[in-house]
Amino acid sequence: MSQSISATWSTVEVNAPQKLVSPEKLSNYDLILRCQEGIKPDRAAFAELLQRYQSHVEKILYHLAPDWQDRADLAQEVWIRVYRNIKRLKEPVKFKGWLSRIATNLFYDELRKRKRVAHPLSLDAPRIMSDGEMDWEIASDLPSPDENLTTREFYEQLQVAIADLPEVFRTTIVLREIEGMAYEEIAQITGVSLGTVKSRIARARARLQTVLQNYLEE
Q: 26, 42, 64, 124: least CB-packed within 10 angstroms?
C-alpha cells in the first residue's frame, strides 16, 4: 500500500507544472530561448533582454549617428524588429552580433531616406599605413568646429560610401571599425571563416579607399 502511495505521489510530482525561473535569473542564452517560446515572445523575458542589451544598441547608434536627435526612436525601432524576428534567430549564442546587424542595417536604411545628414560617423580621417591598410580612429566627440569644408565633405562621403557597400561588406566593416571587434569574434558572429572575414574587410576598405581617394590625398 505504501509503495502504491509513493508511486502515485512521484507521478504527481513529475506531472506537476514547474515554476518558471524569473527572467532576471536566467543566463543571456536561456533568456533568448525563453523569448523564442510561444506564439509571441514572453513580455517579461523580452523586457529583461532589452534592459541587458539597450546600452549596446545605444552605443552602436551613437557611433553611427552622434548628432542625430532621434536616436531614441531608432533604438525603439531596433527592438521592434528584434521582437518581430527573434524566433528566426537559429543560434541564440550569436544574439549580440545579430542585434548589431539589425541596428546597423536600420541606420543605413534610414540614412538612404535622408538627403543630407552632417557627420553621422565620429571617425577621424583614415590614414594610409605602411601595410596598405587604412588606420581608423574612433573619436569620442563630434568633429571640432574649426574643421575645414573638405573634412566635413569627407564625413558625408564616407557615410554614403559605407551605405553603398553590399550588406555583407558593410556589416563586417562596421563590426570591425565602429565596434572594434576582433577578426575571430566577427567570424563567430557572422558564421563565416576567419579568411572570409579578412577578405571582406580588405575588399570593403579597398572600395572605400577608391571612392574617397580624393579626400584621402588631401
A: 124
Specify the DSSP class assigned to residue 179.
Answer: S
pLDDT digits (tens, 9 = 90+) for 5-38: 444 434 444 444 445 789 999 999 999 999 999 8
User: 193 has which bridge partners?
Assistant: none
- What's the confidence (pLDDT) of residue 156? 72
Task: DSSP for 4-36, please give it.
Answer: HHHHHHHHHHHHSPPPPPPGGGS-HHHHHHHHH
Q: Could you give the residue ranges of the DSSP H alpha helices within the chain?
A: 2-15, 28-36, 43-64, 71-85, 95-113, 149-163, 167-177, 183-190, 194-211, 213-217
When pLDDT is averaged across residues 100-110 and rounded to a whole number, the result is 86
Cell 521582437 maps to which residue?
83
Question: Exposed, middle or buried, 18 (CB in 10 Å: 0-12/13-18/19+)?
Answer: exposed
pLDDT of residue 173: 86
126 Cβ neighbours under 8 A, 6+ residues apart: 134, 135, 136, 212, 216
Amino acid at 7: A
pLDDT at position 217 is 64
Residue 143: how many CB atoms within 10 A of its CB?
A: 20
Model's pTM, two decimal places? 0.61
Task: Give the pairing type, strands 134-135 and 127-128.
Answer: antiparallel
118, pLDDT greater than 70: no
Q: 138 and 148 in contact (C-beta within 8 Å)?
A: no
